[in-house]
Write a structure and sequence with these properties.
Helix content: 25-40%
Largest sheet: 7 strands, mixed
Number of helices: 8
Structural class: alpha/beta
Shape: globular
Strand content: 15-25%
Distance between the termini: 23 Å
């Protein structure tokens, strides 16, 4: 398993050698295909925005699929990335709390918890974030939201709760920082529940990050420089 520092070195090499792809808008993008690393730092490039991260996690917990509820007081606009994802009414597919707690998606968080209580050595304690119907749903009513996280699987090994995050696509700068914060929150929450219910000595373990396409957009190339 490679480290986050190895990921940084990879993108610095690409930047130094002018290795880019071009996105649909004509911008340059550096990318790593089939990335897999130990997510033991909250950021790869740049600094996490704690205020926003806290707001996003609260929005996920609310299970609202409307981005205007990220800042329910109306004192701030949702981030541009969410505005570009939502339809004209502010609706999206990717409220991650809705995807793991919602009854329409199988209340997966509770199913995973029960699976680990029934079999602490399980290999099927998976929360599946996306679904085949996303091909019809990602652009419905003007959305542009093809869910980025595929699934997350939890393992109890050596008295620690670990998880493996598997993603379709992940922006190194904003995407990773916010997604990491969410996955860490869920892992810690799951560990707390399992401790209360049965495994008194269980501790939070590692987050293993797997991404089909890990990328840096041109506007963030300056963060890649040493």
């Amino acid at each position: 398993m490679i480290t986050i520092e190895a990921v940084r070195k990879y993108f610095r090499y690409q930047l130094d050698n002018g290795i880019y792809t071009t996105d649909r808008n004509g911008g340059k993008t550096m990318e790593m295909l089939g990335a897999a690393f130990l997510a033991d730092e909250p950021s790869i490039f740049g600094k996490p925005n704690k205020e926003y991260i806290d707001a996003e996690i609260e929005w996920y917990i609310s299970q609202s699929t409307n981005i205007t509820d990220i800042y329910p007081d109306g004192d701030k606009e949702p981030p541009k990335a969410w505005q570009m994802t939502a339809n004209v009414h502010g609706e999206v597919n990717s409220n991650y709390g809705r995807l793991i707690w919602g009854d329409e998606y199988g209340n997966q968080r509770e199913m995973v918890c029960q699976e680990l209580l029934d079999n602490r050595d399980s290999r099927r304690a998976s929360m599946i974030y996306t679904r085949p119907s996303i091909w019809k749903e990602y652009n419905s009513q003007g959305k542009n939201d093809f869910i980025c996280t595929n699934s997350v699987t939890y393992y109890i090994r050596n008295n620690k709760l670990h998880c493996v995050v598997q993603m379709r696509s992940n922006d190194v700068v904003f995407g990773y920082k916010n997604d990491y914060a969410w996955q860490k929150w869920v892992l810690e929450d799951m560990c707390s529940s399992l401790k209360v219910l049965r495994y008194k000595e269980l501790k939070v373990g590692d987050i293993h990050w797997q991404v089909q396409n890990l990328h840096v957009y041109e506007q963030h190339f300056n963060l890649v420089k040493r």
